[in-house]
Amino acid sequence: MAQVYAARRDRLRERCTAGGSATALVSRPANVRYLAGAAPEGAVLLLGKGEDLLVCADSPAQPGPQSEQGRPDEALRVQLLPTVGGDPAVAAADVATAQGAESLAVEEHHLTVARHRAIRSVAPRLRLADLGGAVEQLRVVKDEEEISCLRIGAEIADQALSELLESILVGRTERHLALELERRLVDHGADGPAFETSVATGPNAGRRGHRPTDRRVEEGDFLSVCLGATYRGYRCEIGRTFVIGTSPTDWQIELYDLVFAAQRAGREALLPGVAYRDVDRAARQVLDSAGYADGLPPLTGHGVGLEIDEDPQLAPAAMGKLDACVPVTVEPGVHLPGRGGVRIDDTLVVRPEADGGPELLTITTKELLAL
Prior knowledge:
3-stranded antiparallel β-sheet, aminopeptidase activity, Creatinase_N, Creatinase/aminopeptidase-like, hydrolase
């Protein structure tokens, strides 16, 4: 992996040099992890003129290779702050000055105003430039090792969900079911949940971002579940909707079939070269044509990786086109106030048609089951 991290830093260095900065300071934790193999709390990465440094406030732990925290690149020198309470970003800027750097690209979207001022005060002659989203752009296309981590995380999430569906659900609260799912994720080898697990029943079902409550599952309810597993730092997502205890009613079947058709249209649009907005349009127009234009979520899906919500954004105004080896979610849904709704969510990897088209990572059935 040392060669992988070095190659990533070299690609970033090329971008920085093209932008007029020979050095860069990376402070956003996910970006530090991507380039250095680990991101101890508060650590920053300096791409220096002489050498690259991982600057830490404390000595980084030495976790196992499968830890969520990761293992620092062994080829990368770690520099500890000499005093307690110092700021690694400020110390890194001081090192850059000592190396003879004239400019330093920083992640202005992550640094606070106070840290930016502190860097200027310790290195007044250092010209600060904006690194922008350069690292995030590098992270969009995943290598096969990254995709393997996502694939394993998806298998864990599928397993946790399938086990829950085999248990008795009527009478249990949304909160209890969410906690059980998160426990099962860890039991099956996940670092932890990729985000707060959502379990929604009855009138809450299908509501995006629903936080579990003490409402109990009742017969005839829609039950929508959205969960994800983190594995070696990489996060996936799955969402499914079921009916509890009885055969679904006509309106439930109709609504489910509609959302399923929208989700399938979005999945089938995931090919290299397709515009982000066109994937969103493929799913959205199915729901629009059925009269559900109002109240639809602002996007149909998003990238996943070291963070659960990464670029690209599959939204009506999104700019850009898909590349191969980009993992994304496709997650349309409809919520009817007071009645409930449906959400179906998969994580897939964009693949060319010659390789079989989009690779589905989350494989739990999308059939409307009565549990």
